[in-house]
Design brief:
Layout lengths: L1 H13 L1 H18 L6 H14 L3 H28 L1 H8 L6 H8 L1 H17 L3 H57 L9 H12 L3
Length: about 210
């Protein structure tokens, strides 16, 4: 509901042409974001749920920690790619070379979106959907408020893009803080599992997806 109202308000404030530019610009990070997943989010949800049911909270923590690390590394690589090749993406994919700077700006979203999405997967696996809902609402409210303020202060399309990016920054960081809090709250002794072990488990399950 919040995002629906936001879309109507932003479209009215920007006007048809500027809103069209904004919609085009955020398409690039949304498409590239898909390449940061590789089924890992579904794997995190599954194995966190499985190990939590078995009472192995130490393994839950290691799955979340290593799953987050894998996705963050992938997010950094793809964000850097989008940032460096923003002019190319604007010219070839969007056929709007004048939007290169805005594509570059929006590329940063990918990394923050990774934190946001991975946190949500962890919440679902831990059966803490109230944190899922809270994080989603924080992102929606932050996006709406920041975009409206920046557009009204004269930043137009750039303000809408910045609001989009910052909302994922805020929600991603808060999501990670919530995840760390929940893991520490349920901390239990467990066997040590290496980054390689957990990566194999997550990729074996996630890659077919």
């Amino acid at each position: 509901v919040i995002l629906s109202i936001s879309a109507i308000l932003i479209a009215r404030l920007l006007g048809a042409d500027a809103y069209g530019q904004y919609s085009l610009v955020i398409v690039i990070p949304q498409l590239l974001f898909l390449f940061t997943d590789l089924g890992l989010n579904q794997g995190i949800t599954k194995f966190v749920s499985d190990f939590q049911t078995k009472g192995d909270f130490g393994r839950v923590a290691s799955i979340v920690r290593h799953g987050m690390l894998i996705r963050v590394l992938m997010g950094i690589v793809i964000s850097v790619f989008a940032f460096v090749f923003s002019d190319f993406l604007a010219s070839v994919v969007l056929q709007r070379p004048e939007l290169g700077f805005l594509v570059q700006l929006s590329a940063i979203t990918i990394l923050f979106q990774v934190l946001f999405a991975t946190s949500i997967s962890a919440f679902v696996g831990m059966d803490k959907t109230e944190y899922n809902a809270l994080t989603l609402n924080i992102q929606s409210l932050a996006k709406t408020l920041i975009q409206i303020v920046l557009i009204l202060t004269g930043f137009a399309v750039a303000g809408a893009v910045v609001g989009h990016v910052v909302s994922y920054l805020i929600a991603g960081v808060i999501g990670v803080v919530f995840v760390v809090y929940l893991l520490r709250k349920n901390k239990r002794p467990s066997a040590n599992f290496s980054f390689g072990d957990n990566t194999k488990v997550l990729l074996r399950y996630g890659s077919p997806l």
